[in-house]
Amino acid sequence: PGTPLYRINSTTWRSIQQRIADIQANISRLSIEIESFPGVNKAHGQHARAVEELISTWASRIERLETLKSAGGGNEAALATARAQLAQSQSEMAGLREEDARLIAEQARAHADLKAARVEFALAVDTAATLTGLTPADLLGRESSAAGALPRWRAISEIEVLAVEPGVVESIALPNGAWVDERAAILSVVESGLNPEARSPAG
Fold first, then answer.
1. Are 17 and 131 in contact (CB under 8 A)?
2. Run of H or E residues at 151
3. Running DSSP on this structure, what letter comes out for residue 157?
4. Residue-wise pLDDT tens digits, 112-170
5. What is the predicted pLDDT for the residue at 136?
6. Rounded mean pLDDT of 20-34?
7. In Å, how far from its chain's centre is CA 107?
8. Virtual CA dihedral for 139, 119, 33, 15, nearest 10 degrees?
């Protein structure tokens, strides 16, 4: 058991590798996006507080100007300007509240997408493990301890099929380099100690 029988240059394996790489890239993108949220939220909050202060300042100025006007003084143009500035600041605050709701929804979506991508990644690695006969931990490990070494799932170029029981190869159905359907038999193995007629096809 464990003896290499043959290797397959599999298009299915290439597709799985590409799928894992795509999901991993998506996880990285989402992680970077989520890491930016605290800075975005801080800047948004500072902007909102600055607008709130403007609203308070213009409201106080309007109140003073209206008091002066009631007493028979004040400047009508200054009052009109203050009212216009207050309306502009209030409109800006309404826009910031809409932006706040958008940010909350966007950040919730990013967290949900990251969670789903991690589940999808685990499933893709499980599929790769089934095809290669390696464990998910083995596939996610590095090919070597060298700097820049690739993870094993990425470094594998061919699927190596190993013997699972003792036996002797009786016949090989295909020449080296031949194209083969995934359901076709590749070789026949005679189990050790049994009649040669009792053979099991491997494929």
1. no
2. none
3. -
4. 999 999 999 999 999 999 888 889 999 999 988 788 889 999 999 887 776 666 777 76
5. 95
6. 97
7. 14
8. 50
Phi, psi dihedral angles at 46 (to 5 degrees): -65, -40
pLDDT tens digits, 136-147: 999 999 988 788
Instruction: Measure Cα distances from 160 to 3, 5, 30 in Å.
Output: 10, 8, 34
3-state secondary structure labels for all residues of 30-87: HHHHHHCHHHHHHHHHHHHHHHHHHHHHHHHHHHHHHHHHHCCCCCHHHHHHHHHHHH
CA dist 54 and 89 (Å) reads 7
- Closest to 128 (Cα-Cα) out of 45, 10, 26, 2: 10
pLDDT at 186 over 80: no
pTM for the whole structure: 0.72
Provide the sign of the torsion angle of the four alpha carbons 191, 195, 200, 202, taken in this order.
positive
Query: Is the CB of residue 187 less than 8 Å from the CB of residue 6?
Result: yes
Residue among 169, 127, 152, 93 nearest 12 (CA): 127
In what helix (H) or strand (E) does residue 121 lie, and over which residues does it extend? Answer: helix 76-132
